Amino acid sequence: MISSVLAITASAMATAQATPLIGIGDDFWLPPAASTFAEGLDQMFHFINWLCYFFFALIAVLMVVFVVKYRAPKGHSFRTDGPTHHLPMELTWLIIPLILVIVIFWLGFAGSKTLGVEGYVGLITPPRNAYEIQATAKKWSWLFKYPNGVMSDDLYIPAGEPIKMVLRADDVLHSFFIPNFRVKRDCVPERYGYLWFQADEPTGHSKFHHLFCAEYCGTGHSNMNRRVFVLSRPDFDAWLAKEASWLDVIPDDELYFKAGPKLFARCVTCHSLDGTRLTGPSWKGLWDRINEGSGRFTDGKSYRDLIGPGKQFQTPEDYIRDSILNPAGHVVDTYSPAGMPTFKGQLNDKAIDALIGMIRHVDEFDPKTGQWLKAAEKKE
Amino acid sequence: MTTINANPDAILDTHASRDNYLTHTRGFLSWAFTLDHKRIGVMYLVGVLTAFFVGGIFALLLRTELLTPGATITADPNVYNQWFTLHGAIMVFLVIIPSIPAALGNFILPIMLGAKDVAFPRLNLFSFWLWMAGALFAVVALMRGGFDTGWTFYVPYSTTTETGGVIPVVVGVFILGFSSIFTGMNFVVTIHKLRPPGMTWFRMPLFLWALYSTALIQVLATPVLAITLLLLIVERAVGIGIFTPSLGGDPVLFQHFFWFYSHPAVYIMILPGMGIVSELFAVHAHRHIFGYRFIAYSSVAIAIFSFLVWGHHMFVSGQSPLINTLFSAISFSVAIPSAVKVFNWTATLYKGSISLTTPMLYALAFLILFTIGGLTGLHLATLNTDVHLHDTYFVVAHFHYVMMGSALIAMIGGLHHWWPKITGRLYNERLGSLACIIIFIGFNVTFFTQFMLGSHGMPRRYYDYQPEFTTYHQISTMGSYIMASGFLITAWCLLSSLWNGERSPANPWGGRSLEWQCSSPPPHDNFPTQPRVGDCYDFSCVVWSEEENGYVVDRSLDPELNPNAPKRAGAH
To answer: Fewest beta carbons within 10 Å, which of A220, A273, B100, B292?
Structure first.
């Protein structure tokens, strides 16, 4: 079992170029309905809408008619024949809305087969045989973990099967939201949450649905959008098998430039390659800084105090490894200990080796795109 | 003139040129330490409108940023996050919550009661200075690096974010809370103890019912916010672990605490607006308000229900489905008194004598916008549709229709209604009406588009967005510019009246309640003795006077104040 293989962007890279999305549709209200219960929920939305149209028109028309009809010039004596109250009428417009809201509440809760409305009850009860995917939200990325240990950054699901998402968050609140499926649920740190859906129409690798973070989580909140691919069962199995082994088939000497950039996609929101200061230190010159021992930690110690034979970290590699697995242990001065989540259980030794290699050879990578610059050379 | 009032001439003393509250004493200190509710109201008004201007600037900045996906006017998402946080925090805590009760309510409430002042004038001044202190802390927060938590301060983001202004602004909101509590206490006591002879509970102007209900919520709910914020400060400062999960706390608990205050706070914002609108419809349609008791009871009903529905902010937070279901059911209860009010206001227009004045236009705009805002609440209270719409622009549009389209429009309408009373000047009605229409159009262009955005899945608080949403965002931004120009015209219209506006008669609109029976601006003591009142919605004794160039309330025509008054047909 390759339990901690990170497939992250291997998948993303495969489909990155010019992917047409399914989008939000051209309807006046609501995006395309792509899950099994979406249409039943839309039915409810439209039902409430029609009530709204009716009552809005009623109020607006009465208002305009009265204003036009009963307008009186300034100084005109006032008419006094208007009723001051009318109990039967007032009870009517108390009781009719009361009945209506009871109906709306009940439809929203329980749904109705005859009206084609899917109730809340249907949304919260995942079928027992659902395919389970673990989702972890963190600032500012998603990690999806499949039963066979494969992990991905975008969400891949098999078509025509109920999917149960097990949601959690690493740092602050996030919210898992797929508009086309009409599902949403907050991801709360230190808590698990469930959500389920089923999409019958495969998108293939060429199209996707949007996945958004719907709970404000800071700087990268609006860039926590990912793609949702719905694959037919055979395609999905093929994808899973491919993802399970991508890192293992790369030879060790090619690791840092073949696996590095793909793994780096998880680091790129906080670490730059060109020296720009982001949430974490830039990788540019990082290897040299560590080796020279210059640079300080928040507790006042320098790299030299901690790294070297006989010290806490025997080698620079040990220190980098520790920084990935235990980021709050030693924090570089002026950066925050809350800045980086741990990658324990998400990156195996081979993946960490690839990242260390990339940090060592950072000059070989394009500082903007993270692509390996010697790729062309190698071919020649 | 036969009347049972002890001092009839004083009631009808409409000569503004005499001593009034503005000219009574002079100098900065006479304002800073004034105990006159009218001056305190005016100071609040200036403060609130200034804050509204600042909050509006942030609104325009963030709408402009959203003109295009990605960077438009700032390349830093953190800057945008600060803008929307400031916009929300300023508008909620510094503008809408104090706007109607503290500014207009302070000015009008004692006069409507025929009283000289509120029950505790010193407490009133204190609550104004607390408001100033709260605003000052907001400025301190900005100088300490601002804050980017959103106005809701959700943990654990608010306990871990690195922006330095979180604690100062939370302290500021804490202080503003006390300002609000003291105003509420003052109003409760004033309404209980200082009503004039003849004014039983069900003879009070509906604005007072609304202020009374609001004051109850302020007194009962705000302490919960205060405790929550105090815990948040302690948590952030020393890490005690009540809300932050990494310290063993529960972030959902914070949401319960926060919304236990903040949902009632929504009604602190809208109830006084409803009260103003009840006045506007009655006075400018010159007709007895339709279904007085139902409107009064519905204010109280809303105040009570407001405490029972907070959980609907948390349908997707991980709260148990059973609790969600209960909160959904209870949330619908708010729809009933709201619907009753809307129908009763509409019915008030029936067989009225309607003057399409600027305040009336605002009342009509309110009716339309509140209807939309209220009806779209149905989508959000319904469990299955809310799951999709939660935390999208649909919610943003909904609460702007209610908080801005209703509460603030009512406030601006009330400002136009009482402006001649407060300043003693008439503004240019054509300009005022034009501005109202522009604001109404701009508002709908801005926020109706956001219903569409949200239903298509656009999440809120996004600096960047998918290109498919671009057109909607651009239309919305254009709407915000239209709205801003409307507000600028309004500001010009009102401010210029201070210099070249005609002097206002005591009763320019034909109002019946007591504030229209003292001069504009009112004298320092409002009324020499507390006057006896009749039915404040009986407009049959309001008559046009050429001499005054305004209306006068002829108290001799009121059968309650004068037993010899002629009986009328139609009145009950």
So the answer is: A220
